[in-house]
Automatic annotation (TrEMBL):
Cross-referenced NCBIfam families: PRK00230.1, pyrF
Protein's pathway: Pyrimidine metabolism; UMP biosynthesis via de novo pathway; UMP from orotate: step 2/2
Keywords: Decarboxylase, Lyase, Pyrimidine biosynthesis
Keyword Cytoplasm: no
EC number: 4.1.1.23
Residue span(s) of domain Orotidine 5'-phosphate decarboxylase: 8-225
Protein name (record): Orotidine 5'-phosphate decarboxylase
Function statement: Catalyzes the decarboxylation of orotidine 5'-monophosphate (OMP) to uridine 5'-monophosphate (UMP).
The keyword Lyase belongs to this UniProt entry's keyword annotation: yes
Similarity annotation: Belongs to the OMP decarboxylase family. Type 1 subfamily.
Residues involved in substrate binding: 14, 36, 64-73, 119, 180, 189, 209-210
Active-site feature positions: 66 (proton donor)
Length: 232
């Protein structure tokens, strides 16, 4: 399978230590070309060094830190993260946050992804949090604001892909967690599709954690998802 197809699967290294991450990476070998390092691993001892090391070894790295703070802090934090040389960074899709991150990423190769509405949320969760919009409308509003802020891509669930692609155009990266192979446990994800469905609906990349990391045979699980991507 070509690396172009493999790159569309981003495996989330959602483990608590660099030692566990290394073991998983060794098991996955050349089946996986793109990794996500999220908060639980980044903040573990050696987490950021692992990001640099994997880049140097030729892997692509998505650093999922979901920044959200006052503008000046987000701008400076983004500038520091850009020095790591990773490929993607997440920020929450608030207009001030996105504008500040855009400034911080200036003149670097870092691509910014805006998190629209977390895939563990449904309409009732948004209502409980005080929002007046449901998921579909809030994702759409944030997609428009991300485009205006010249953000490189969006994190959204596969369910919103069909509505959002025409709004943001072909160049914005659409990256979807909330991906579950048929029959897999959903866990805390509320808005999900299978890998094949998400690719067919227009996802550029799929983010998959537990269905690979917690599988009895993680390499076989990753290869099955890559095959589903290739045939979608
Ligand atoms: O930004 C993310 O990557 C993210 C956004 C979102 O809305 N939902 C979501 O699940 N994620 C991440 O995607 C991964 C999904 O993991 P699994 O549910 O185990 O496949 C986790 O690392 C989450 O942190």
């Amino acid at each position: 399978m070509s690396d172009k197809i493999r790159d569309r699967l981003i495996v989330a290294l959602d483990v608590e230590s660099v030692a566990e991450a290394r073991a998983l990476i060794a098991t996955l070998g050349d089946a996986v070309t793109f990794y996500k390092i999220g908060m639980e691993l980044a903040y573990a001892p050696g987490g950021f060094d692992l990001a640099r090391e994997l880049k140097a070894a030729g892997k692509r790295i998505f650093l999922d830190l979901k920044l959200h703070d006052i503008g000046v802090t987000v701008e400076r934090a983004t500038r520091q993260i850009a020095k790591l040389g990773v490929d993607f960074l997440t920020v929450h899709a608030f207009p001030q946050t996105m504008a500040a991150a855009r400034l911080g990423a200036e003149a670097s190769g870092l691509k910014l992804l805006a998190v629209t509405v977390l895939t563990s949320y449904d309409d009732a969760d948004l209502k409980e949090a005080g929002y007046g919009l449901g998921v579909a409308d809030l994702v759409q509003r944030r997609a428009e604001q991300a485009r205006a802020a010249k953000i490189d891509g969006l994190i959204l669930s596969p369910l919103e892909l069909a509505a959002i692609r025409p709004i943001v155009g072909p160049d914005m990266l659409l990256v979807t967690p909330g991906v579950r192979p048929a029959g897999a446990d959903k866990g805390d994800q509320k808005r999900v599709m299978t890998p094949g469905e998400a690719i067919a609906a227009g996802a550029d990349h799929l983010v998959v954690g537990r269905p690979v990391a917690r599988a009895a045979d993680p390499r076989a699980a990753a290869e099955a998802i890559v095959a589903e991507i290739a045939s979608a």
